[in-house]
Each structure stands twice: as structure tokens, then as C-alpha cells.
Design brief:
The complex is a heterodimer of chains A (111) and B (113). Chain A has 111 residues and is mainly β. Chain A is built from no helices and eleven strands. In chain A, 34% of the residues are buried. The mean pLDDT of chain A is 93. With 113 residues, chain B is mainly β. Classes of the chains: A mainly beta (111), B mainly beta (113).
Chain lengths: 111, 113
């Protein structure tokens, strides 16, 4: 079993839609949870980082972590064509540990 | 530019040749990571440094791969006797101890022909 799993998509939505992206992880020792956005042929770009369970909001983006079910979500409100990218969830056990990535979900927002 | 810098951006090499990539992290960051990414996959961890100490190496990192970070500044990743399976994007990231977010460079795309 992989440590972090994501539905690879592709996911296609119309502009303005609410997008829900999800990850599951296998090890309850993970404490730090991150979402990265990666455009084609570019390095990943950090969107949000959360410690432990709970919600975090930044503009149109909301990250949720449910440690009881080992489930991580990213919601994008009022999606824009510029949001078209691959979204990678990532986890860490401690702030001194390596970052472990999921395989990514490809998102297309259609104008 | 204060981000993570990787050079070269692209490298084409013949099978069996050695290649070396360089990463310059964000200046105050003490941690540096190397990842490998193939098409349609997330980045796979290869190794990471805290200052000049190499703290962990993935089982993916065969004996042909070596990484260094002299004086805790820039880092190099060398691949000896390259194979076609080494073709991938090699990503470098750096972070500070708190908060722990890793910031990535643009990557070096290696093609082995």
C-alpha cells in the first residue's frame, strides 16, 4: 500500500465550479499536511500547509484534515482556468522529516 | 531571484555517461531535498540534507547515485553510468526547520538516449 493515495483524474470542471480534491494516507504518524500545485514542466509550488487536524483557508482555497479517517481535502471555490494544473498532496511525520507526495490529481477548468 | 535554483534545466546524455546536477537553495534554509519525478507521478524522495549532513537516502538511490552538500550550501547530485530508466525530472527543494514547508526549484529534466 502506498503511503499517500490520490485519484489521478483527470478532473474537468466548468469555470466557477467548486472543486474538491482528496487524498488518503496510511500512517497515523503523519502530522504535517500540504498541498502543492504543479503546472506542466514546472516544479511544485506550495499552496497550503496544515498541522494536525482541522481547516485552513486562504482566499479561494480551503484545506481540511481529518486524522481520524486519514483523509485530506482541498476545496477550490470559484475555480478559474488558471487553476488548471496537477494538485499534489504531501505529508510529513515531523518538521524534521522528508516530504512524501501522492501521485497527484490533474485538474482542468474549462472557460 | 531568491528562490531555489537548479542547473542545468535540461540535460540530454548518452547511456553510460555520467551527469551532475546542481541545486542552490534559498539562502537561509538549512534543509535540502532531492526528488525524482516521472510523467504522471508525484515526486519520489531520493535523499535529504540538514546543513552538510546527509540524513537519509531512499532505497531508490542506487550506488550509481551520489549527492553532496559541501559546507551546507549548494548541493550536487551525480548519476554515474546513466541508464534509460534514469530519464526523469530531478527536483531540488529546500526548507527551514519551522515552518517545515519545502520550496521547490524548477527541476532538471534528464533524457538518457
Amino acid at each position: 500500500q502506498k503511503e499517500v493515495e490520490q485519484d489521478p483524474g483527470p478532473l474537468s470542471v466548468p469555470e466557477g465550479a467548486i472543486v474538491s480534491l482528496n487524498c488518503t494516507y496510511s500512517n497515523s504518524a503523519f502530522q504535517y499536511f500540504m498541498w502543492y500545485r504543479q503546472y506542466s514542466r514546472k516544479g511544485p509550488e506550495l499552496l497550503m500547509y496544515t498541522y494536525s487536524s482541522g481547516n485552513k483557508e486562504d482566499g479561494r482555497f480551503t484545506a481540511q484534515v481529518d486524522k481520524s479517517s486519514k483523509y485530506i481535502s482541498l476545496f477550490i471555490r470559484d475555480s478559474q482556468p488558471s487553476d488548471s494544473a496537477t494538485y499534489l498532496c504531501a505529508v510529513m511525520k515531523t518538521s524534521y522529516d522528508k516530504v512524501i507526495f501522492g501521485p497527484g490529481t490533474s485538474l482542468s477548468v474549462i472557460p | 531571484d531568491t528562490g531555489v535554483s537548479q542547473n542545468p534545466r535540461h540535460k540530454i546524455t548518452k547511456r553510460g555517461q555520467n551527469v551532475t546536477f546542481r541545486c542552490d537553495p534559498i539562502s537561509e534554509h538549512n534543509r535540502l531535498y532531492w526528488y525524482r519525478q516521472t510523467l504522471g507521478q508525484g515526486p519520489e524522495f531520493l535523499t535529504y540534507f540538514q546543513n552538510e549532513a546527509q540524513l537519509e537516502k531512499s532505497r531508490l538511490l542506487s550506488d550509481r547515485f551520489s549527492a553532496e552538500r559541501p559546507k551546507g550550501s549548494f548541493s550536487t547530485l551525480e548519476i554515474q553510468r546513466t541508464e534509460q530508466g534514469d530519464s526523469a525530472m530531478y527536483l531540488c527543494a529546500s526548507s527551514f526547520k519551522s515552518p517545515p514547508e519545502a520550496f521547490f526549484g524548477q527541476g532538471t529534466r534528464l533524457t538518457v538516449v
